[in-house]
Amino acid sequence: MCFRLCKRGHIIYPAERRKATRKVVDANIWKPTTRSAEKSFVCERHFSEDSFQNFGLFKSGFTSKLILQPGAVPTIRGADEPAEAPTYTPRATILDAPTPSPCPTAPSKSTRTVSTQLSAGTLKLHHVRSRGVQATTDTSDSCTETETSWLQLSSTPMKATTSGIVDRPRKRPRLEIEEEEEEDLDISDISLPQPHDSTYEPGASLTEVSEMTEMDTAEDFEDTKYIVFESCLKKLFQTCPICKQHCNLQRRRFGTFVSFTQNCPHCLYHRKWDSQPIMESTPVGNLQLSAAVYFSGASFVKMEKICKAMKLQVHQYDTFRRHSRLFLEPAIYHKWKTDQQLFLEELKKKDKIAVGGDMRADSPGHSAKFGSYTLMELESEKILDIQLVQSNEVGGSFYMEKEGLRRSLDLLQDNNINLDYIVTDRHTQVKTFLRGRNITQYYDVWHMEKGLSKKLDKLSKDKECQLIKKWSAAIKNHMYWAASSSKTGPEKVAKWTSLINHIQNVHTHDDPEFPKCAHPEKVSRDPSKWFQPGSLALYKVEKLLVNKRVLGDVSKLSSDHQTSSLEAFHSVVIRFAPKSVVFPFVGMMCRLYLAGMHFNENVKRAQATSKGKVLFKVAYPKYKKGKPTAKPVKTKPTFGYVTELMRLVFNEVFAEPGRFVDQLKSVPVPEDLSAQHEKVSKDEVIAAHVSRFSRAVGGPDQGTETQHTAHQDPETPGVSGVQRMME
Q: Which residue windows does the record flag with biased composition (Acidic residues) (predicted)?
C-alpha cells in the first residue's frame, strides 16, 4: 500500500483498515483527528524500517517515495522528535530540503526534490564530486529532449568563491557552477541495487563494491577518453531507474562537453551527468583537445574538417586561438626556456664546445618572411638555441641569417660559454661576421659538395665533357675522404688537388703533404676512362675544382663534425611548421620550440632489432636517381615532452596564467610586413578590383566594353589605355 507526502514533506498513510485502526488507537500510538478514523492519515515515522519495501533507496536519496509492505501496521509511538539524518548520502545533492519538524496531525502540501548524478551501482571512485548547474530550460512531455548551447561556459578561468559559486563579471549573464566537498564512501551504508533496478548486476557484491573504491584517482586530463554516440547516451537516461517510466531529458553542449539532466515526472527522480570535468567554467576536454593539437604540431583546421566529416562535436577555431594565447603558447615558451637554461648550465662545465649553425626560411624562394637560425651542440647533437628573425627587422630576407647567428652567439657569451669553433655553410655574410669576431669557422662538407655537384652535372651535359658523368660519384667521395682523413688545412688542399692527376692516371704528386695516392697500384686496361692531357674536358674540370675560392674553402672543411643533424632537424620542423601555412610570429616561434623539444628527446634513438638482428629498410632517394640504398630502422619516437606540457598547462599555467603570459610578452614581436605600407580602405580596394576576364554589367548596345588589367591605364582606374586613345 502506497501513501503520499503531506505539506511538511512527511509521508502519510491512509488508515483504511478498521482492525488496524483499532489496534493503533488502543495502543495509544495515534489518535484520529477526525470523527472517521478511516479517513485519517499516519506519518511514516510511526512505522519501522522493515515496514517498507524500498527504505534503502529512500535513505540513500535515490527515491522520494516509500512503498509500504503489505499488512504493515504503525508500531512506533512518540514520533514527534525530528528523525536523525542518514549517515550516508551517495553522490546526491538535496535541493530545497525542508527542515524536519514534528509530525503534524493535519495534512499539508509540501515537496522535497532529490537530485543525483549517478546510481549507487555505478559509484566506482573513493572520492566523488557532484556538480550542480543552475540553468533555466524548457521541458516537454516525457521522453523528450531539450538541447541548449551552453554559451555561458568560457575558456577564460574564473575565480570561485568560498560558497562554491563562480565569481564572474556582472555585465554578462552567468552560469553558476557549484561544487560540493568530496566525501569518503562508507561501504557499510551502501545498499546494493535490487533486481528491479536498472543498475542491477547479478554478480554485484560487497567485494565488488570494495574493489570499486580502490581505483586510482588519476588526474582528469590523464583519463582515458572514448568516442560515444549520442544515441547510446540517451539510452542511459530516457528510462527512470526507479519507476521504469520515461523521463524528461535535457542536453547542454559546449564544444566537446555535453551534459544530460534527467527528470522523472512520476517519482520525482533526478540526476545530472557531465561528460567531462569543468575547471573554473572551462571544460577540461576542450582545453586538452586544443593542447593535443598544438603540442603535436597538427593543424586545428584539418582536425576540425575530420571531426565534421564524422559529426564529432568540437569547439570553434576562435576557442582554439584563445586557448593558445592564454595557456598553450605561454607553457611552450616557459618549458623551452627552462630546458634551455638547464642545458646551458651543463655546457658551462666544459672547457670549450663545438656548435653548428644554419638558417631555415619559412617559404621557398627569395622572399621569405621568417628565418629561423638554429644552433646545435655538435657533440650531443641537441638543439641549443633557435632564433626567429622577421625580414623587416633587418631590411630583407638576405640579412636574416647573419642576424640570427649574432643573437645566438650573444646568448652563449651572456652565459659565459667558451666556443671552440662553429660549422656552417659558405654564406658570405656569415664568413665576414665570424672573421670580425675572431671565431674559428669550418664548412660543412655536404653543403660544399652539393654546390660543386650541381656545377659538374651542368658541365657534363656538354658534348665534349661526357666523361664527367663517369667520374661524378668518385669526385664527391674524394671530397669527403679529403676532409675526414686530414688534420690540417694544407693537407686537405694537397689531397684535393691530387684529384686532377688521378683522373689522368697519374698517381704521384709534387706536393710534400700528399706525394702519392693512397690506393694500391693497378694497371688500367681501358684508357678511354681517363682524361687526356690538354683536352677541353680536363681544362673545364680543373678550372672548376681547383680555383682559388674552392681551394680556400677546402682548407676550411670540417674534419670531425658536420651539420647533417641540423638538416635532419629542419625536416622535423616541416612537420610542426609547414612552409605552405602562414603563422604569426609567436605561433611560428612556439612551433619551432616544439620541434626542438621533439628532436632533443629523440635524437639518440637506437637502431631497432628483431630476433637479435638490427633492422634496415631499402630506400630509393631522389639524389641517387633510382639507385637503392639501405637505411637503418630506428626505434619508435617518444613524446614525453607532450605529457610534461600537459601537466604544466593543467597544474600551473591554468591556475595562474598571468605569470606565464607576462613571460611570453617579454619577447619583442616585430610589426607586420603590411605595417610599412599605407593602409587603404576596403571600399577602395573593392572598387579598384577588376578581373582579367570579367565584363562590365550591360551589353555592347549600352556602350560597355571588356576591361583587361594588362592594358589598364594607371591614370584612370578601370579604363584601358586603348580605350582612352579611341576616345
A: 177-187
